[in-house]
């Protein structure tokens, strides 16, 4: 569909045929009725899409004197959408319907004799539908050279239950085991020692991962480039590609795959969004843009990918997107998140971006690329001050991390990706020690609690003036600890604290619990409180989740930022501790989080459930769906608020293990109203998702509802 093609036709009839008797069809439709897309009429009624040209019928006598006719012709295909680039959104949604196998048939209507050949109409040569990915991966594994280790794993299921394909390619299995079981623990526990070992050549052979991903599944080249690349790497000994040298002169690189795999492990998340690839959409099946969800992590696909990034701690992370006409390769413009060690990111990631860009343009029709960090204005609006994007999320793990936006949706842009990734790979191969030491430096600052001023230069205001990290009155931007109590005296929302601890663990942040009551200043933190000791490699990410955030209001525009600040956004109490070593020897590492059950004290017939957390809403929705009696307080009282719930003890007993609820006996001294199960009609994807999560019963038509939640303004309240 993105390039004009000529198919040579050669058919032999064992008798004499006449041109006027030949009927040409494609997919059962007359050839001439195939038309290109008409943007005006919004249907396929444009120019001729298929043409039979150079038709020749050569009739000869064979040895036995019988006549036979040889029919030759060219089947020429035009551009179905009158463009070589299918990236415009209006077209991108059209092409999936047209992909498929079609029979080209030549029929002699005078004899009913026919010739048939099946042809595939595709977006571009290497485009694969979701269902074609796994069979092709299997084929790649089968055809791979024997000295390459390949492992397939499904790292999770999409909303609709499709596998998230994940491929690891390395020299051998022991290289992968050694990295995950020996190198990573050292990286996380003692990065400084590991730096020394590398400097003293005491580490021996080691390998570091390059992690490749695609999220926006309708930015199709990012998926196909990974399979194309995998094919190359698993079948060729030496891969040749062109790039530019320091003087911008074209030069050829011979990348030896054995050398590469002696130093690098490839980790490929073919697409983070399987449902998106299936339906050719940007969003997942819940309607969420996964490349805005890495901060909040609400979607199953996001949970799976962040777990893998936190597990692999890649030295380089490449997120394959489209479409920016200038061929965009990050790093980004300001404002930068002050939790990054940006001096360490800026140097190596920018150099790697050039390696990608030079390789990307030297082997394709493209002749330039752009790096927002260098090429855009300070207010350029392509910033990385949020972990919402996967590319910026991976920066928090010390990776040279890039979102890469190819210009077009066609084979040229697939090839640009393949070469860009080869350029990125050569860059890691050539600078392995230096790049890994730099990532370990990022980690080391964390462990040492170091607020290195070298990063300040990169934290600028909208005028480009360095403002450094916002330290307030403190010397160190980072606190010593955060404490998240789970005692109701110091904590208003226990379930949300528990969710946050699970969140932190998933993201590679270490969390401890306090083994005894400990007084710091005027506060006694009770035994059992969660403590985030900020002396750790992922402290920057912990801080992003738990601190107030930055004020970037002076910037003209930002791309698609989110407020993190989980304590305020999710509503729990969080205590910043600035005193050094106050919990030393008192912390025990948390491996998992057990749900805290609701303890029912006293013996009242009815209990108040305070409307204080999401568990309260979920538990009430569960009781209502089971037709249990539920009431709400009709006015405030001393200890309770209008809108708190009242339920029977016997019903509370049934759900108390499942939910963490604030309850107290109900003394019948406050007026109540009976609550009925609401029938909720919601319009937008986000509200539907949230309401489902909270256990509301959703109806499909507004007329069947008694509550309408309309966040996109499309419901008809009549
Ligand atoms: Zn994208």
UniProtKB/TrEMBL annotation:
GO MF annotations in UniProt: metallocarboxypeptidase activity; zinc ion binding
Keyword Mitochondrion: no
UniProt xrefs under CDD domains: M14-like
InterPro entries, per database record: Peptidase_M14
Domain Peptidase M14: 126-428
Swiss-Prot/TrEMBL GO biological process terms: proteolysis
Matches recorded under Gene3D superfamilies: Zn peptidases
SMART domains assigned to the protein according to its UniProt record, in alphabetical order: Zn_pept
Cofactor requirement: Zn(2+)
Record-linked SUPFAM superfamilies: Zn-dependent exopeptidases
Pfam family, one: Peptidase_M14
Keywords, ordered alphabetically: Hydrolase, Metalloprotease, Protease, Zinc
GO CC term (a single one): extracellular space
Family: Belongs to the peptidase M14 family.
Protein's UniProt name: Peptidase M14 domain-containing protein
């Amino acid at each position: 569909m993105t390039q004009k093609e000529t198919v040579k036709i050669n058919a032999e009839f064992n008798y004499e045929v006449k041109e006027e008797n030949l009927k040409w069809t494609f997919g059962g439709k007359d050839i001439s009725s195939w038309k290109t897309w008409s943007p005006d009429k919004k249907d396929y009624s444009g120019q001729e899409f298929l043409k039979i040209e150079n038709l020749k019928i050569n009739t000869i006598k064979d040895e036995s004197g019988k006549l036979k006719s040889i029919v030759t012709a060219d089947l020429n295909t035009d551009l179905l959408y009158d463009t070589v680039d299918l990236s415009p959104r209006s077209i991108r949604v059209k092409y999936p319907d047209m992909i498929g196998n079609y029979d080209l048939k030549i029929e002699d209507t005078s004899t009913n004799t026919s010739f048939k050949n099946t042809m595939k109409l595709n977006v571009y040569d290497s485009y694969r539908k979701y269902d074609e990915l796994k069979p092709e991966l299997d084929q790649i594994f089968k055809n791979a050279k024997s000295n390459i280790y390949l492992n397939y794993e499904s790292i999770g299921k999409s909303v609709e239950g499709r596998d998230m394909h994940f491929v690891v390619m390395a020299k051998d299995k022991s290289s992968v085991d050694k990295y995950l079981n020996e190198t990573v623990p050292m990286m996380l526990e003692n990065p400084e020692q590991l730096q020394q070992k590398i400097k003293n050549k005491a580490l021996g052979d080691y390998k570091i991962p390059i992690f490749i991903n695609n999220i926006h599944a309708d930015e199709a080249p990012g998926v196909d480039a990974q399979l194309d690349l995998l094919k190359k790497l698993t079948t060729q000994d030496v891969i040749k590609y062109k790039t530019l040298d320091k003087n911008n002169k074209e030069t050829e690189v011979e990348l030896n795959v054995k050398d590469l795999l002696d130093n690098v492990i490839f980790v490929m998340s073919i697409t983070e969004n399987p449902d998106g690839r299936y339906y050719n959409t940007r969003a997942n099946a819940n309607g969420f843009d996964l490349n805005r969800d890495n901060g909040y992590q609400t979607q199953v696909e996001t949970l799976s990918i962040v777990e893998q990034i936190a597990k692999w701690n890649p030295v380089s992370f490449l997120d394959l997107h489209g479409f920016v006409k200038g061929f965009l390769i990050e790093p980004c413009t300001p404002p930068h998140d002050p939790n990054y060690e940006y001096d360490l990111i800026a140097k190596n990631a920018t150099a790697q971006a050039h390696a990608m860009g030079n390789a990307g343009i030297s082997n394709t029709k493209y002749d330039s690329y752009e790096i927002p960090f260098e090429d855009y204005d300070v207010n350029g609006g392509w910033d990385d001050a949020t972990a919402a994007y996967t590319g910026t999320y991976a920066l928090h793990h010390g990776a040279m991390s890039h979102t890469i936006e190819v210009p077009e949706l066609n084979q040229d842009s697939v090839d640009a990706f393949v070469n860009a990734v080869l350029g990125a790979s050569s860059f890691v191969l050539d600078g392995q020690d230096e790049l890994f030491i730099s990532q370990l430096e990022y980690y080391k600052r964390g462990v040492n609690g170091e607020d290195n001023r070298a990063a300040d230069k990169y934290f600028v205001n909208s005028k480009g003036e360095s403002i450094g990290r916002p330290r307030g009155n403190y010397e160190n931007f980072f606190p010593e600890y955060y404490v998240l109590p789970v005692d109701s005296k110091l904590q208003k929302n226990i379930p949300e604290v528990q969710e946050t601890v699970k969140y932190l663990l998933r993201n590679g942040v270490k969390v401890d619990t306090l083994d005894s009551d400990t007084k710091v200043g005027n506060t006694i933190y009770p035994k059992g409180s969660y403590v985030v000791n900020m002396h750790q490699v992922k402290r920057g990410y912990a801080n992003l989740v738990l601190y107030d955030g930055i004020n970037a209001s002076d910037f003209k525009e930002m791309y698609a930022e989110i407020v993190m600040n989980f304590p305020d956004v999710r509503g729990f109490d969080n205590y910043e501790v600035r005193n050094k070593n106050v919990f030393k020897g008192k912390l025990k590492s948390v491996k998992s989080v057990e749900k805290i059950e609701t303890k029912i004290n006293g013996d009242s017939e009815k209990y108040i459930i305070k409307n204080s957390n999401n568990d309260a809403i979920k538990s009430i929705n569960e009781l209502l769906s089971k037709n249990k009696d539920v009431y709400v307080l009709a006015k405030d009282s001393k200890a309770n608020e209008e809108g708190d719930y009242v339920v029977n003890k016997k019903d509370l007993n049934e759900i108390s293990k499942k939910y963490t609820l604030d309850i107290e006996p109900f003394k019948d001294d406050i007026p109540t109203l009976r609550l009925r199960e609401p029938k909720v009609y919601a319009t937008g994807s986000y509200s539907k998702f949230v309401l489902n999560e909270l256990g509301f019963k959703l109806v499909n038509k507004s007329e069947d509802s008694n509550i309408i939640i309309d966040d996109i303004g499309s419901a008809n309240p009549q």
